[in-house]
Every structure is written in structure tokens, then in C-alpha cells.
Design goal:
single chain; alpha+beta; SH3 type barrels; five-stranded antiparallel sheet; four-stranded mixed sheet; about 15% strand
Amino acid sequence: MTFAATSEDSSSWYEADLATIGEQENAKGLNRRTPRETVRNFVALTETKEYQKAAEFLNLGDLPKVDRAEHGAELARQLGLVIDRQLWIDWSGLSARPDAMQDQGPANHPLTGKARRDIGLKMVKLNSQIYEIRLARYKNKDGDPVWLFTPQTVENIPILYEAYGPHIFEAYIPSSLKQRVGGLRLWEWIALPLLLSALLGLGWLINRMMRWLGHKTKSPLLRQAAEKTRLPLALVAMAIAAQLSFKMGVSFSGPATNIVRPFLIIIVVSGLGMTALKIIDVILDRVTLRVIGDIDDTRSIKERELYTSIYALRRVVVLVMVAISAIVLLIQLNLFESLGMSLLASAGVVTVLLGIAGQAVLGNIMASLQIALAKPVRIGDSVLFEGSWAYVESIFYTFIRLRTWDERRIIVPVKYFVSQPFENWSVKDARIMNTIVLFLDHSADIRQLREVFIELAKNDEGVIDHHTLDASVTQHSRAGQELSFYAMSPDPSTAWTTAMRLREAILDHVRSHHPEWWPYDRLDGPHIEPQHTAVKPHLDTKSDD
């Protein structure tokens, strides 16, 4: 398909005298009608070292006319090396239309269906400054429009070449090793494995050094910090060393650089974030052990709230570190410029996908933050959840870990935990009422047993608030009567052991002084007398503790 320039609007190019921006005798036969042809032919000419012809793809209008022939070829050589070594512009993705019209994309996109007269190829950030490689369309009064690299791009070429051009190391590489094989040069296939081996050795050395420092230091805080941060610090050291080697001595081709450089930035950012998080974890752990110690329901409400707040602080720190790491990564990789419009255009799709795929994870995270803020349950609280008595041992982003009285661990998703009813025995006061239930014969005297129980309970160290001591017949049947004994304990842990002791003491009293109070088996019949043989007691261990 051909596109006639005369049918286009004059706003689709810049008016320029091409005779003032290039040597026209070298431009004969050069195809510069479309952005794709311009970049593709420029790269092809620089690869064959035809720099004089390649200079015809540059708008040299800002250079003195006498310097264009000499400086134009050198600038073309430098730009070709920069593109090949570091920027790796994908010219195949450029428009093949002379008007560079974007005929594909969202209908509401501001550029869809409109001719363009300039295109940004690459955005580069150096020393806090932004440099852009850009194409623009120029036209003589009587000629056809052509696409050239803009004067601003030409002005930035020496700066980009100094940063991304060949380094001193390449001067010692034989020409035979500079041949391309599989997209890379031969020396790069040799240097990459050697560099990787050296980096792994450096990482191993840093790891061993941190372990040695951890063993040598006398401070528990420094020892724990060294142990937890040795792996992320090793990764950070490897990534920084690799980046320094790229800047100072090794300049790989575009494919290798564009794969390795983002990977190294990811390692540095994530490694530093992990290191900071590990150090914060160590500090919080040491503060917890020093201020609170082992946490359970015997601790005061303020101590349990402090422990829960520390865990909440850790979750906030994790979210902040992840957000900062993601922002730094996007800035370092210059992804905001290239992803901005795409993210805006696909925001609805991304929202739907996150809502479907991340519903469970996001729901658990929100429920975890809800617990951290509202504190319906705190770390160290004693709870009765789905029939299991347990302590809240940890509250994480997506799950809660409960420790039962017999040292089992119950892992419950946070969202499920907060959506189910549970008993929090420590929400305001850790005190709990023991209920000790016995089943005895109708002949058992509740008044006497009440006096015995009160005397036993007053002498037990696990009983408080003696005015609450009581005993009552709570149920009876043909087989006997149910007696319940009540005693207050300071916390569920003490209540459990106290209830066991009191139950054993009451049973021992009945066994020693009134064995006739044990429940009997009664059989119906006209000639059967009641039997007075004691049977095995029905010990009801039912208790709300």
C-alpha cells in the first residue's frame, strides 16, 4: 500500500529545508519514508560501518555546515553503538505507515486514528536528567516527507555515548571474539558465565563473613541481625558488583543488558527491602522479649495490646517496604512513562482480574488490618474457637495461629476467623469462673459438700474472689443428682489446673468419708431390693474452662 504525501494534512510533518540538515548527495537511495524504515536502515548502516550514509538519518540542522560531514558520521557511529549496546530499540514494533498513524488500540485513546509527526523511541535517565531518543517527520516544499532523528537527539548523543558506549575492557578483546553468535558476541558468551561465577563466589563470601560476624559479636541483637540479613545482603552485594562491572569495565550488547540490568535492579531493591525488614523484625523481637517476654493470658491487657500493636506495626512496615520497593523499581526501570497510558487504559480489566484472582488474599489482608486496628482479639488472648480452647499465638497477614493448651497449632484464615463467633476469655479481664460438675446419688448432702468445697477452694492458690465461691444442685434425674461447684481463677491457664485439683480433692472427700454417695444402678422389679454396691463413678469433666 502506498501513501501519497499530497493527500496528507500539513500538520503531519515539520516544514524544513532538508538541504540545511544533511548532505543530500549521500541521501540518494536511502529509504526514510516510515519510522520503521528509518530506524531499521540506520541500524543496518551502522552495523556495516557506513557512517557517512547513516548520518543522513540525523537532523544535523543545529551543527555548523562545515562540521556536518565530519561530525555527522561520528555522531551516527556513536548513536549506533549506544542503540546496540544499551538501548536495544525494537524497530520492528514501530509504525510502517508514513504518517505513523496508530490504527490499532482502544477507540478512546487520544492517538488512535491520528497522524503523528514525531515519535519517542526511548527514554533514558542519567544523573537525574531525562534524555530521549526521538524521531520526527520533515518535508521540503517540493519533496517527500522523511523521518529523521531530531536535533535534540543529536545533541544528546555524546552524553549517551559516554555513559553507554564501549568501555576500556573492550580494547583488549580480539576482533575474532567480536563476531555475533545467537544475538550476542562471542566474548559475551564467555564473559557472562565467568561473571556469574565470580558473583556467586562474592555472594558466598559475604554470606560466610556475616555468619562469622554473628558468631563473634557478643550482642544478641547484632547476632540475630547478622544471621537474618546475611542472605539478602549477599544478594545485594552481588547485584551491586555486577552493576559496577557493567559501568566500569564491561559493556554488553543490548539483549544481554536489557535482560540483566532490570534483573539486577530488582535484586538490589528487593534485597535492600528484605534487609531493612529483617532488621526491623529483629528489633521488634528483642523489644518484645525485653518488655513483655513470653506472651499468654497471664500477662496484663496492656502487655498483650503492646504485643499486638508490635505485630500490627510489622505489617504496616511490610506494606510500606513493598510499596516503596515497587515505586523505586518502576522509577529505576523508567516504566512509569511506558506503562502510564497502558495502565490507565486497562485499569478496568486489571481491577476485575484482581477482584477475582486476589479476592481471598485481599480479604484476609483487610481482615488482618481490621483485627490490628479494632483489636477484637489480641496476641496472648485465651479464646474458645469452634470447641477448641487456645491462645492467639500470632496474627499474620492471611492467617491466625492458635496454640491449644496441649501445644497443638490451629491455622485459621483471618477472614474465616473474624466471620465466625468465638469466645474471647481475655477481652476485658482474664478472670474466669471454674465450673466443676459431679454426678452423685440423691443421698449426697449438698450443704456438707458446699462447706467442704469452700474450705478447699480458700486454701487453693489458684482461687481468687472467695466471695464468689458456691455450690448448687444444677440437675437431677432418676439415676442421681448433678452438683456444680463454682470458683474464680485469675486466668484460663490457672483455671484449668485449679479445676483439676479441686475436682480431685472433692472426689477424694467423697471416697474417704461418704462412699455411699456414689451413684447406684437401680433396677425396676417387685422383688428386687435396692442394691448398695458402689459402682464406678461417672466423672463428668464438663467445664467451661
